[in-house]
Design brief:
The structure is a single chain. With 612 residues, the chain is an alpha+beta fold. Helices cover 38% and strands 19% of the residues. The protein starts with a helix and ends with a helix.
């Protein structure tokens, strides 16, 4: 005899304490008559989580005979499964991507609404993560971004006003309060590592999705971060553990350390405020330019100096830390292919590390995070010299641009985990439970001309066709008609390819780059093709000097053949008619959405001559 939902509800309430993660989902399944509970079952008299799992499993087996009972029981009993819907989807093989969850969050702690204070690819990435978590999204946007996909797909989009900036802290906080947002996700860049912004969020009782303002202040100052690492007995590069007072002070320290040295900004990142100095005559000029760039970029002109390591690898470790003192790392990313300290290609794992070095670097990363009392998702960065010695350089207190590389080899949605950790989720896995599967490589596709010193390419995208196939992922906000503007960075897309091994990942990346069609603006696709075909890259022989040492710029010319073809007649017609249309609108002082005669004429001509 089977009981109705109302009869079982009373018994299920008793089990809520022992099964909080499946309670609501089981209710829904019973309402839908997917699962029925027999009155004779002992679960009524003595609620038990294991018995509930067995009961649900046997009920599903009867309805779906094709399911394997042992596998389903394993899924139901897995501590990494957050909801029964997730379990059922895995059991039915609904998802082609085997996503792992390393945290558990009680339903009552989940955010209801998150404001995203960013734009572009990362804004869209956060929207998708929130959607899967059942969280409403509010997006702030500028005039330039009013037609972007992020604005279209957010649950609510709030225009910040004419001349507004994504750095306008007070305006963003006011919008968060008006929309009753529980939390703010800063993405990367802009306010992601801004101490004042994090502190203002705390003051207004809005959760900043990231570490506390105190932690950001500690790790945002690279001099203090270096001191913290030294206290934890983590190797650091030889230098002084204090800020430079003046140019004379810089000359004195550099002479003592021995050239070459590197002058760095104490705040920020992204290669800003960094100058390599190879002789005493370069100190004053390098100091002045680094100081000016640091102030312009971060509002802080404080500098420090350390010994410069020739031709190192840049390796970073992805970490997750909860509010209960638990910390794990999810392996490393090798970010050695750089131009002016800007990362262009990332991969995981690193071809330079063996298990012994990986374990030591991972332990050092966890020590650094623990010492700083860090919470959330973050990245600990190291340099690895030619003798396999590693040195702590900094910690980024945000989600990284290249986080997708780690997601592809671990099966973990880092943005979802970051949001859940900010809400108070607890890590349920330890370091021994984490393993890497295969190999992943990411190419940053920028709207830049690599044959013209990577000068930004501004304009509208005429044609856009992303690649596809097994193991290929594209994180992008680009589409046909998308406008690359001079107001923001030139990132168009993050192309990530996964393979069973490094060679398969490289092979898939070559094919994906050749398939990737973007016209209307110049991109760095030819540059990446040159890198992927370079013998030293294929052999894993990469350092931060890779581009210069392998003369990559001169090798990319042959990959420009398709990109530099003469425009087709149809494309010329579209460009001319659109330009005339815009000119007439400005001349007449108005703009509307009705079809313009010039545009219609151009389209008609294109249709008539489409075979030309």
């Amino acid at each position: 005899m089977e009981y109705s939902f109302q009869a079982f509800k009373k018994a299920l309430k008793n089990i809520k304490k022992t099964a909080p993660l499946v309670y609501d989902e089981v209710e829904a399944l019973i309402k839908s008559n997917i699962v029925h509970i027999d009155k004779r079952k002992k679960i009524y008299k003595k609620p038990d989580l294991a018995d509930l799992g067995d009961t649900i499993t046997s009920s599903l087996i009867k309805k779906i005979p094709s399911l394997d009972e042992r596998e389903l029981k394993k899924i139901v009993g897995s501590r990494s499964s957050q909801t029964f819907i997730d379990m059922l989807a895995k059991g039915l093989s609904v998802s082609s991507f085997n996503e792992k969850e390393y945290t558990v969050l009680a339903r009552e702690k989940k955010f209801n609404r998150v404001l995203i204070s960013n734009r572009g690819e990362i804004a869209l990435r956060v929207i998708r993560a929130c959607r899967e978590l059942g969280i409403e999204t509010v997006l702030v946007y500028s005039r330039q971004d009013k037609d972007t996909l992020a604005v279209k797909f957010a649950d609510k989009a709030c225009y910040m006003g004419a001349g507004a900036s994504y750095l306008d802290i007070n305006k963003i906080i006011n919008i968060a309060k008006k929309t009753k947002a529980d939390a703010i996700h800063p993405g990367y860049g802009f306010l992601a590592e801004n101490v004042k912004f994090a502190r203002l969020c705390e003051k207004n009782k809005i959760k900043f999705i990231g570490p506390s303002s105190k932690t950001i202040e500690l790790l945002g100052d690279k001099v203090r971060a270096k001191k913290t690492a030294l206290k934890s007995k983590i190797p650091v590069i030889t230098g002084i553990v204090k800020s430079l007072k003046s140019k004379k002070h810089a000359i004195k320290v550099a002479t003592k350390l021995g050239f070459p040295v590197i002058i760095k900004a104490a705040s920020g990142g992204g290669g800003k405020g960094m100058r390599i100095v190879r002789g005493g005559e370069e100190i004053e000029k390098s100091f002045e330019s680094a100081e000016a760039e640091a102030y312009l970029s971060f509002g802080n002109k404080t500098l420090y100096i350390e010994k410069y390591i020739e031709d190192p690898r840049h390796i970073e470790f992805q970490i997750l830390a909860d509010q209960h003192g638990n910390v794990v790392h999810l392996g490393e990313r090798d970010c050695s292919v750089q131009r002016k300290h800007q990362k262009l290609v990332e991969e995981s794992p690193s071809p330079a590390l063996n298990d012994e070095i990986r374990d030591r670097m991972g332990d050092a990363a966890i020590k650094a995070v623990t010492a700083a009392r860090y919470e959330g998702a973050g990245t600990v960065e190291f340099l690895l010299d030619q003798n396999k010695n590693f040195y702590f350089i900094e910690m980024n207190t945000r989600i990284q641009v290249e986080h997708g590389v780690t997601e592809m080899v671990t099966g973990v949605d880092l943005v979802k985990e970051q949001i859940k950790l900010a809400a108070g989720a607890k890590l349920t896995f330890n370091q021994d439970d984490i393993s890497l599967d295969g190999w992943a490589i990411e190419c940053r596709i920028n709207a830049e001309d690599p044959l013209n010193n990577f000068y930004p390419s501004i304009g509208a995208v005429i044609n856009y066709l992303p690649p596809g196939g097994p193991g290929i992922r594209v994180n992008s906000i680009c589409h046909q008609g998308y406008k690359v503007l001079p107001d923001y960075d030139s990132l168009v897309s993050l192309l990530i390819c996964h393979g069973r091994n490094r060679l398969e990942a490289i092979t898939r990346m070559r094919g994906a780059l050749k398939e990737y069609l973007i016209t209307g603006v110049k991109t760095t696709i030819p540059f990446h093709l040159a890198v992927m075909h370079n013998k030293n890259f294929v052999n894993g022989q990469v350092t931060t000097s890779f581009i210069k040492q392998n003369d990559i710029i001169n090798h990319i010319k042959k990959y420009f053949s398709e990109d530099r073809k003469e425009l087709a007649n149809g494309q010329k017609v579209i460009l001319v008619t659109t330009a005339v249309s815009k000119y007439m609108e400005k001349k007449n002082g108005y703009s509307n959405n009705k079809p313009n005669a010039w545009v219609m004429s151009g389209r008609q001509e294109l249709m008539e001559n489409r075979d030309v």
